[in-house]
Design goal:
This protein has 11 helices and 13 strands. Helix 8 runs antiparallel to helix 9 and helix 10 packs antiparallel against helix 11. It has a domain of 195 residues: Ribosomal Protein S5, domain 2, CATH 3.30.230. Helices cover 41% and strands 22% of the residues. The protein binds alpha-D-galactopyranose (GLA). Alpha-D-galactopyranose binds next to helix 5.
Amino acid sequence: MTSKLRSGNDLRQAFSEAFGSAPDILVRAPGRVNLIGEHTDYNDGFVLPVAIDREVRMAARARNDRLVRLVALDFGQRTGFALDKIERDEAAPWSNYLRGVAFYLQAAGFALRGLDAVIQGNVPIGAGLSSSAALEMAAALTFQLASGLELDRLRLALIGRQAENEFVGLRSGIMDQFISALGKRDHALLIDCRSLEHRLVPLPQGVRILVADSGVRRGLVTSAYNQRRAECEEGVRRLAEYLPGIRALRDVSLADLEAHQQALPEPVRRRCQHIVYENQRVLDAVAALERGDVAMMGRLMDASHASLRDLYEVSGPELDTLVDIARSTPGCLGARLTGAGFGGCTVNLVEEAAVTSVAAAIEREYPARTGRTPHLYICSAVDGATPINE
Ligand code: GLA
């Protein structure tokens, strides 16, 4: 869903054309960019994402039966299912996120009504900006409103992750759904992915978040991602022989890791090293932002990228080139890949006065060095999923 975002009225109109009546539910849920804390969420660690002004919208109306009928405007595709028999649909893979959400809402004991819905959005797909979490949260909020369910935003996020893990098959952590459900305008969100405690961190004045899409979409991301996760689990199993009682890499201190790294085979050692140091970088980044030290924040982002490239091995030549161009341009404070990696986007922390020149440098040099066209987004931090009143 990379097209232009439609207005509320446009979406109502499209619903009426598709289903012959007016919708009475209109919701939005944002994508996200993660400032720092990559691959830490499924290790019970810390993350610092921002909900961005790229979103998925749904217009819907409850039905009096158990049918769900869906139209994805950006794909020109229609599909449907019965709430009593929810199965994957490989011909309309986007619908699996909605099917998964409905499935796990019901599995949690919520009584759902059928509904008709049209879906539209402008979160680039497969770019590491969480188009899938945005779709899950828009779907969860739509089902909640259509069926009058008592559910808080955190519960919506947990249902969304379950859909992603068990229905779609990516063993992701909680970050993307959490920030899409609970983000706040002008803030990043520090999330403790074990306790699910969270704290708003105001974004500093005078800097902007510039997202650069490499245009690279790698196949087999799901298996590479799940493999990283398995490597972290192996690290925990091996370290637990020396550090009884640890449950996740979150429980391993920098000193413990240094003391016991010989117990870890490669590449497990490198993976563990990334996670343990990245968790510390998130906490350091929050402290830096809270005292207005944007230069330190930038250095931590740089260190995070180097670690993702060399230790976690989820970068690639295009992402490294984007980071390199940005970091060679005055006014860019820090740059790193964001999201799962293997392609997708970088996030750049840029002095406000330098946004145009950093963007121009990327637009000029990236095609020359890679033969690809970059897409640039200057992002604002927005609220998590809400009904739309427009
Ligand atoms: C994907 C997953 C998240 C997180 C990131 C990497 O976006 O959905 O849960 O693991 O990758 O930080």
